Amino acid sequence: MPTTADDEPPAPGPSLSLARRSPPTPRVQAAPTSTLADLPPVSSPPPESPSVTLESHASSEVEVRVLEAKSNRPAAHARVELRFFAEGADFDAGQTILRRTDSHGFVRQRFSPGLLSVVAWNETSAGGPFEVSVGPAEAPELEIALQPTLPVEGRVVDASTGEGLGGAQVSVWTFAESDTVVTGADGTFLHPRFPTDAFAEQLRVTLPGFGAQVCYLEASEEGWSVPSPTREDAAVQGTGTPWVEIALVPNLEITGKIVGAGGAVVPGARIEAEGFYYVLPSVASRDAAEASSSEDGSFRLEGLRSDIGHSLRVRAEGFADRVLELEGDLDRTLDLGRIWLSPQALLSGVVLDPDGTPVEDILVELIPRGEPSEGIRESTVDTGLRTHGESFRTRTDPAGVFDFPGLSPGEFSLHVARDSESVLVHEVSLSGCSANDWLELRLPPGSLTLVGEVRTSGAALAGAEVIVERHGYVGSVKTDSEGRFRVAGLDDEGAYELEVRGTCSRTGALLTARTSSWAHAKPVLNLGRR
Q: Which terminus of the chain has fewer CB atoms gathered within 10 Å of its CB, N or C?
């Protein structure tokens, strides 16, 4: 297991490592049985969040209406969970708000630009999740029809002893994080609401002292099935009320101290651990924890599964990222001692189109060259999949500029891409701890630039947002003072979908338009009121 020695800094050279991927690479999703005696009651739902406004400079009011599917009547006093991810924020940085609908089935909440995921439920039915994008000066409206649900019974046990574990929290994780029940002293539970209008959902179980666990459940009035996470074992199936037994493994605690040159402690460093384990033969769930180093450089990570491997990434301002690989089946407490950080190298540059114009919002990925780390052993549940240290990604700003701080000296391949296809590949060598390189990258002549114009009421519209998609997100740009926009790095293999959003300067009304266009065309979009 490659870790740092406690009495000497790391050897010179790249400190980034890649985990070996096991074929086939699993698809990663956001992750996480018979009569029961003395079933625990449903836990009290968390208190309703105050009607706060999550906004920065511009915000919009989101309106959610909840209806009963069978009667189409308003679902009064239903619970609504709103998970908000601010524009540009990490997935783990979401905020959760819990509200109740009014007597007419409505919930209204203001948000800044970002992505919102919404679910709703009452005693016997549930609906969602549904996602909606929140933009500046935009008022999204969402309607959720509650569908009948099924109860789920089960038991949570200690994987090493088989004994029931009381006090564990059980939720339908892919539906609502806030809708939880707690196991009784013998480990049994009853969750009254399992959505049946989806193909499958994930049950998630957490308990202090143990690593989190998720499992899939498919259930309907005709029957239920708990698929095995491995290809060797068969699914558990039945009819009636689903029964699920979930085993928890001991919690892994990781401690250490972050130090720099000369052994000086580094406070405020961000330490992140990440591992993946199978929940289906082709689907993996993420196991993660993070912490910050204290004033004396020490840190503690808790809540991780001890039976799978993890990558540990350390990031601190002014230092190169450090990635360590930790094997599974470790003792419950792992002390890494001192983890040494080296001064960072910085790679910056600009991306230009074939005409020399800066390219906005194009993906730039930096991939370390070299062999993946060896000796990462996998168990039947450990996927061996890692993302830490595999690559660095960013997108260019309106001036076409990109920055990669926190690098170690080494050899890299730099990819500039649109629509998942690399438009340009450039080899990079960073040598010396004080490396600060600047690259000027020009897209090849064969790449195309979509040039268009946005107008409203016959006049050019400045500052409108143009979103380009084809098989997913491609990029977005703003129109200039003359209403023109440019999206470079495209190809001629198919038409692109354009969505334009702007604000009327006179009334403040939201203006929208959609069209499709080939990259060689010069579309003119005329916006009307939404």
A: C
**pTM for this model (two decimals):** 0.67
- How much is the pLDDT for 49? 58
For residue 228, the SS3 value is coil
Element (H, E) at 413: strand 410-418
Whether the link from the prior residue into 129 is cis, omega within 30° of 0, is yes
Task: Check residue 264 and give left, alpha or beta (phi > 0: left; psi -120 to 50: alpha).
Answer: beta
Query: Which residues 6+ apart lie within 8 Å of 451 measured at CB?
Result: 484, 485, 486, 522
Task: Give me the DSSP letters along 365-403.
Answer: EEEE-SPPPS-----SSB-----TTT-EEEE--TTSEEE
Contact 325, 398 (CB under 8 A): no
Nearest-angstrom CA–CA distance, 300 and 281: 32
Phi first, then psi: give them for residue 322, nearest 5 degrees.
-125, 130
pLDDT at res. 432: 57
Distance in angstroms (rounded) separating the CA atoms of residues 329 and 308: 7
**3-state secondary structure at position 92:** helix
pLDDT at residue 326 in the model: 87
Residue 316 to residue 15: CA distance in whole angstroms: 14
* Residue 417 and residue 423 in contact, taking contact as beta carbons nearer than 8 Å: yes
Q: Which pLDDT belongs to residue 424? A: 93
Task: Report angle CA 485, 491, 493 to the nearest 5 degrees.
Answer: 130
Whose tokens are 């991939």? That residue is: 367
Instruction: For residue 280, list its beta bridge partners.
Output: 283
Measured distance CA(271)–CA(390) in Å, rounded: 16
DSSP bridge pairs for 288: 274
Give dist(CA 186, CA 172) in Å, integer: 21
Instruction: Quote the distance between the C-alpha of residue 395 and its chain's center.
Output: 17
Task: Please report the pLDDT score of residue 510 as a whole number.
Answer: 77
Strands in 164-250 per DSSP E: 169-172, 180-182, 188-195, 201-206, 213-220, 223-226, 236-238, 243-248
* Residues making up the chain, counted from first to last: 530
Enumerate residue ranges in the chain where pLDDT < 50.
1-44, 51-57, 372-377, 433-434, 530
